[in-house]
Known about the structure:
alpha+beta; Formiminotransferase-cyclodeaminase, Chain B, domain 1; Alpha-Beta Plaits; Four Helix Bundle (Hemerythrin (Met), subunit A); seven-stranded mixed sheet; 15 helices; 51% helix; 15% strand
Amino acid sequence: MKQLVECVPNFSEGRNQTTIQALIDAVKSTEGVVLLDHSMDTDHHRAVLTFCGAPAAMIEAAFRAIRVATDLIDLRTHGGVHPRIGATDVVPFIPIKGTTMQDCVQLAKQLGDRVGREFQIPVFLYERSAAHIDHAPLEAVRRGGLEGLAFRMASDPDWTPDFGPARLHQSAGAIAIGARPPLIAYNVNLHSTDVAVARSIARTIRHSSGGLPYLKAIGVELPSRGMVQIAMNLTDYQVTPIHTALQSVKIEAAKYEIEVAGSELIGLVPQAALDQAAATSLELNRFDSSQVLETRIAEALQSRNETDETVSDFLAAVAEAAPSRAGGSVTALVGALAASLGVMGARLGRHQDTEQRLLLLSRRLHQLVQEDTTAYEELMHAYKIPKQHPDRPMAVSTALHKATEVPLEIAELSCEVGRSIDSALPSAKRAVHSDLTVGITMAIAAAHAALHTVNANITLQSNQHLIDALRPRVEQSEQNLEELKRLC
Length: 488
């Protein structure tokens, strides 16, 4: 399929399996659309469907699901912990392949127009499709719930719906339809029943309160599980990764002497987001990394058609007066070379597990060469923003965070490279002992240099929440490095 769009509608029903099945059937009945995932939660009283297909077919599938929800879900008898404004609460379109964000904006408008006309439900365009700046954040549309939205619609001309009548549908409420980038719905559960604490933690870590960038969070009760939850949306996981969000919750919960009971992903997650978190424990209850299709394929098939810059090109780039390659790129390459030496030794010693792990580490460190270059370029771009510009502090803080995350991962992986090589050393052929020792030494150098960059960037970071989230990983890496040094 040349053009592919994803849609992730949320419905205000998480307890009636018959209704959920009717929603699923509506999507599956649409030609050219594939249902990828569905989930339901009794406490949130909410269901999430994920499907993809060609743009025109996606409008039809979403419309059919909305029709079912309008017929079967009555908000007048609904009670759940998750904020909502409609039987079909939100319908986002996400560009996946051969489509752009503007294409998805047009899909949102076409669907909104049809829903408003045929179902007489008020439709608000949000995120990238919003025609009014105040409607862009979903939380702004939901503010005050149905009552708050109804009041704004009746009293404020700026809150006239984009489509449909200027009043709520009697049973279906309203709908937010929009276009956005991929979003990760990630929840952390706490060993506590104090919802006030959960709400305080959510308020502290979310972006709108000065917390982590691109993080939305609320605290809710989970009566069926006897605990509370921090329900989060990561709207840019490259800036605030999953493990950073988890660590922030842990830090804040510890202040109340509350432990994390686990975490969960709602719906699907980009593979790149899991790659970011590979070196940390996410404490996921319902996810197995072996389920990622791309990971299985990557382990089985190694591409032989990659076109990389030569060593001479890399050295020239490093030596430029206006560097395109920063120190982190150099340390990543050193770590990758160390891992490759370890692969050689493990192969000769027939340590198949160690060989495979070091091969994966070498590939990832090689990828981080370019990722560090990108992070460095973004940081330089942020520093060029005029100092008096109001967006500069956030731009610099965000770029610094990415420029710290990359070398920290280099340090973590380099320490693992050193330990893996050391495990293969005793049974390796004596002829390669010297080479493996060189590999361990290079891994130590890469980890040490990367941590130097990490600590230098942390001193420049103005967001204390980001610093607190990174600190435990930094301390663990420093401990791992000291243990590795004792091996040589």
